[in-house]
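Hi support team,

I've been running sequence recovery on a batch of backbones for a student project. Most finish fine, but this one hangs at about 90% for roughly twenty minutes before it completes. I'm not sure whether the input is malformed or the queue is just slow. I've pasted the structure tokens below so you can try to reproduce it. Let me know if you need the job ID as well.

Thanks,
M.K.
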């Protein structure tokens, strides 16, 4: 009797557990892959069965040219143009990427970026006995034209007609000076918040630090690295931008240079934009789409 009672208890226990867990078994069956109707097909199946390959990303390379670091950012796919990106005085070359949308938006449009570390350079062409000793190692504009650009061309960069310049603050000064020295090597430039005529900024400490005081060396200030002196050599269109609330570089530096340029060497594609803004990345970031659109227009008009 005891054996029959135990057997009956086991039968009841097994039946209870089958009833308890059969819905879970049924759910597992229903969640197994089902035949797909025509048109639903292979995309869903493959996404389950394989691991997606890593998303292709832009390429970043850092090289050294005559002891100067240069970042080269290459977009995915077709390269539509090359932009030489110039920082302001004592601005790290990475600030353009870190503090604005330039790198993200330019790479998305297919532009390759060349970003040199210019340190405390003001894009002068030479040093003088009066130049501060701790600034004499900074890259000059001649380093750009005689070392950087040839090396980039050797590396198959800046080898098309879609070459562009972009700079902010002293980098904007560099844009104009480089354009005046390189004829038609670049298709266009963009100069934001720049200074172009040192003789109207005679108390500026950066300029004094390179050329000596204006009182002692007025001809240096007038004739050497003064963008107004070689105005006739500016062969490419420039997008000029400057915030009217700029407390670092007088807005009239851009306004007056643009006015003189339109009088002495006009280019119908040259543009001026002077919004209510300061000398900061909030303004420079707001100009990114304008500048890239400007480059797109110049590139498309060829």
């Amino acid at each position: 009797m005891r054996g029959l009672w135990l057997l009956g208890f086991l039968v009841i226990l097994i039946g209870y557990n089958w009833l308890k867990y059969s819905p879970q078994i049924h759910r597992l069956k229903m969640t197994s892959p089902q035949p797909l109707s025509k048109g639903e097909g292979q995309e869903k199946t493959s996404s389950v069965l394989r691991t997606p390959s890593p998303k292709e990303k832009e390429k970043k390379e850092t090289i050294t040219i005559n002891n100067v670091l240069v970042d080269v950012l290459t977009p995915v796919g077709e390269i539509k143009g090359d932009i030489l990106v110039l920082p302001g005085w004592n601005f790290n070359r990475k600030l353009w990427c870190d503090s604005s949308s330039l790198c993200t938006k330019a790479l998305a449009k297919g532009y390759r970026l060349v970003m040199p570390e210019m340190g405390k350079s003001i894009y002068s062409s030479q040093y003088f006995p009066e130049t501060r000793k701790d600034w004499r190692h900074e890259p000059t504009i001649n380093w750009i034209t005689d070392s950087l650009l040839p090396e980039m061309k050797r590396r198959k960069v800046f080898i098309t007609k879609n070459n562009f310049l972009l700079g902010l603050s002293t980098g904007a000064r560099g844009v104009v000076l480089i354009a005046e020295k390189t004829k038609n090597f670049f298709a266009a430039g963009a100069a934001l918040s720049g200074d172009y005529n040192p003789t109207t900024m005679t108390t500026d400490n950066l300029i004094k630090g390179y050329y000596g005081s204006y009182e002692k060396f007025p001809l240096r200030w007038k004739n050497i690295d003064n963008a107004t002196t070689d105005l006739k050599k500016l062969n490419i269109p420039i997008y000029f931008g400057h915030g009217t609330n700029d407390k670092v570089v007088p807005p009239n530096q851009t306004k007056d240079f643009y006015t003189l340029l339109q009088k002495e060497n006009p280019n119908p594609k040259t543009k001026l934009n002077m919004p209510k803004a300061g000398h900061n990345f909030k303004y420079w970031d707001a100009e990114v789409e304008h500048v890239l659109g400007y480059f797109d227009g110049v590139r498309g008009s060829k």
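--
Follow-up from support: It reproduced on our side and the slowdown came from queue contention, not your input. The radius of gyration is 31 Å. No action needed from you.
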